[in-house]
Design brief:
The complex is a heterodimer of chains A (about 170) and B (about 290).
Chain A lengths: L3 E7 L2 E7 L5 H8 L18 E4 L2 E4 L12 E3 L13 H8 L9 H14 L5 H7 L11 H14 L10
Parallel strand pairs in A: 1-5
Antiparallel strand pairs in A: 1-2, 3-4, 3-5
Helix pairs in contact in A: 2-5
Chain B lengths: L6 E3 L4 H11 L3 E4 L5 H6 L7 E4 L9 E4 L2 E5 L4 H5 L2 H6 L1 H7 L5 H6 L2 H6 L7 H8 L2 E6 L2 E6 H4 E3 L2 E2 L6 E8 L6 E7 L9 E10 L2 E10 L6 E2 L1 H7 L6 H14 L10 H22 L2
Helix pairs in contact in B: 10-11, 11-12
Classes of the chains: A alpha+beta (about 170), B alpha+beta (about 290).
C-alpha cells in the first residue's frame, strides 16, 4: 500500500513521516515519533489510555488514523511539563494526591484532565467525574484522580486546595 | 488490531466527495467521526478499500437557523451540539441525548450525521429525529433530495441512503416554546448503547397533555415512533393508570434483540419504564 506523507506539530515541534493510511495515530506517535508516553490500552475506544490533545480536542488516538491528523497540532503527555522541566499543576496534583498506582492510565488521564480544565477551569466534582468518564483506571477507584484534578484546578486558579471532608 | 489496507481520500468539496463515492462504488465508505467505522475496521468487520474523509468539506459543518427550522450540518460533532447556544435554546433534548452518547473523547469526533445515517439500532439520535419530525438532506450522483426521518430507517444498518449518497444536513422544526422534553436512557455504563431508551417531546395545556410524541431507541431493529403510547398520554394529566397504559402500548411494538444487555422480556420491561419516566420528566418541564 502506498505511503502517505504527513506533517504535524507535536508538543511544539514540527514532525513528519510516511505512513500507510491504516496506521493509527497512536502507532505513529509511539513508533514513528518514539513518544511512548501515550499508551495503548484496550484498542477498542473504551479505556482512554491513548488520549492525546488534537487541535484542542481530547481524542482516543487508537481510533484516529494518522492521515486524519495531517496538518494538526497535537500534545502528548511528553508535552505536559512546564518549560523549565518542572511538573505542571496537573502532574503535581497526580503526585501529591496519589492519583496513580500502576500508572498505566495516567498519561491518558492527564491529557483528558488538561482539556477538561481548559474548558472548565473550576469544575465541580460531578463535572470532573463526567468529564473523565472516558478514561478507565483499574487501581485507584478514581477518588484520588478526582482529588488530583481538584488540586490542579486550585493551583491554576491560585486558590488554596481544600480537600472535601470524607 | 490493525485495519485492513485502504486508500485515503480527503475531498475539499461536497461535489468532489459525491463523485469519489460514485466512482469508487461499493468498496468506498464515507468517513465522518469514524467512531463507529474505525472500530469495525479494526475488527475487520468492515473492510472498505477506500475511505472518503468528509472533514475537508466545509459545507457539511455548522448549525444555523432558518425561520422556524434549525439546520445542522452532518459533520457537526456531538461536542459542538453540546456547546451550541442555538441548540440549548431551541432543541435542548438534543443536548440531553448527546451528553449520554459514548464519552467525552468520542463526542469531540462523533458526528450527528454519522449517528443518524449509520442505521445502528443502538444510536441515540435517530429516535429523536423521528420524534422531532426531522428531514434529512441527501446528496448523490443523481442530485439532492430530502427524506423524512420517519421514512429513513428500514432495518438494522439499512437506510434510505442509496449507494454513493451522503447525508449532508438535518432540518428540524423548532418545537413550540414551553414544550417539555426528556430523553431517558438506561445503560450499563458510560459509553454503552442503551439497554432501552425513550424520547418524549410534548406540550401541556390546562394541566393535560396537549400534544405528544414518543420515540424508542434500541428496542427494535429500527428506531420506533410509539404512536399508540403517545395517543394514550394525550388528553390525560399523566396519572398512574395513564402512564402504565402508555408503557404497555409502547411495549407492544418493541422487538429488542436478546443480548448482553438482557433478555427480550427485561428490555421491554425497562423500555416501558423509560417511557413512563420520560413522560413524567417532560411534563414537569413543560410550561
Amino acid at each position: 500500500m502506498a505511503k502517505t506523507h504527513v506533517t504535524m506539530k507535536v508538543n511544539g515541534a514540527e514532525v513528519e513521516g510516511l505512513v500507510e493510511p491504516r496506521t493509527l495515530l497512536v502507532h505513529f506517535i509511539r513508533e514513528n515519533l518514539q513518544l511512548t508516553g501515550t499508551h495503548v490500552g484496550c484498542e477498542t475506544t473504551h479505556c482512554g489510555a491513548c488520549t492525546v490533545d488534537l487541535d484542542g480536542m481530547s481524542v482516543k488516538s487508537c481510533t484516529v488514523f494518522a492521515v486524519q491528523a495531517d496538518g494538526s497540532e497535537i500534545t502528548t503527555v511528553e508535552g505536559m511539563a512546564n518549560p523549565d522541566g518542572s511538573l505542571s499543576a496537573l502532574q503535581e496534583g497526580f503526585r501529591m494526591m496519589h492519583g496513580l498506582q500502576c500508572g498505566f492510565c495516567t498519561p491518558g488521564m492527564i491529557m483528558r484532565a488538561h482539556r477538561l480544565l481548559q474548558e472548565n477551569p473550576s469544575p465541580s466534582e460531578q463535572d470532573i467525574r463526567m468529564g473523565m468518564s472516558g478514561n478507565l483506571c483499574r487501581c485507584t477507584g478514581y477518588q484520588n484522580i478526582v482529588r488530583a484534578i481538584q488540586y490542579a484546578a486550585a493551583k491554576l486558579n491560585n486558590v488554596e486546595f481544600k480537600e472535601a471532608a470524607e | 488490531m490493525i485495519p485492513g489496507p485502504f486508500s485515503y481520500h480527503r475531498p475539499a468539496t461536497l461535489a468532489g466527495a459525491v463523485k469519489l463515492l460514485a466512482d469508487l462504488g461499493d468498496d468506498a465508505r464515507p468517513l465522518a467521526g469514524g467512531h463507529s467505522l474505525v472500530p469495525m475496521m479494526k475488527l475487520r468487520l468492515a473492510t472498505p478499500t477506500h475511505l472518503v474523509d468528509l472533514h475537508g468539506v466545509a459545507d457539511l459543518k455548522g448549525i444555523s437557523r432558518d425561520g422556524d427550522t434549525i439546520v445542522i450540518g452532518a459533520m457537526t460533532t456531538q461536542h459542538e451540539l453540546l456547546t451550541s447556544g442555538d441548540i440549548r435554546q431551541s432543541l435542548p433534548i438534543l443536548q440531553e441525548a448527546a451528553a449520554l452518547i459514548a464519552d467525552p473523547q468520542v463526542r469531540y469526533l462523533g458526528t450527528i450525521g454519522g449517528n443518524v445515517a449509520n442505521g445502528d439500532p443502538g444510536n441515540d439520535m435517530p429516535a429523536l429525529m423521528i420524534v422531532l419530525g426531522a428531514n434529512f438532506r441527501l446528496s448523490g450522483p443523481g442530485g439532492e433530495r430530502e427524506v423524512a426521518a420517519s421514512e429513513f430507517y428500514q432495518g438494522a444498518y439499512f437506510t434510505a441512503l442509496e449507494p454513493g449518497e451522503i447525508l449532508t444536513s438535518i432540518s428540524i422544526p423548532v418545537p413550540p416554546a414551553g414544550h417539555g422534553y426528556a430523553y431517558e436512557k438506561l445503560k450499563r455504563k458510560v459509553g454503552d448503547y442503551a439497554t432501552a431508551a425513550a424520547a418524549v417531546v410534548l406540550t401541556m395545556a390546562g394541566g393535560k397533555v396537549a400534544t405528544c410524541a414518543i420515540g424508542l431507541t434500541n428496542l427494535h431493529e429500527t428506531p420506533l415512533l410509539a404512536t399508540d403510547a403517545a395517543n394514550a398520554a394525550i388528553g390525560s394529566n399523566l396519572d398512574a393508570a395513564t402512564l402504565k397504559q402508555a408503557a404497555s402500548a409502547a411495549e407492544a411494538i418493541m422487538a429488542p434483540a436478546a443480548d448482553a444487555r438482557g433478555p427480550v422480556e427485561y428490555r421491554k420491561h425497562v423500555g416501558g419504564i423509560m417511557v413512563m419516566r420520560a413522560l413524567q420528566r417532560a411534563a414537569g418541564r413543560a410550561a
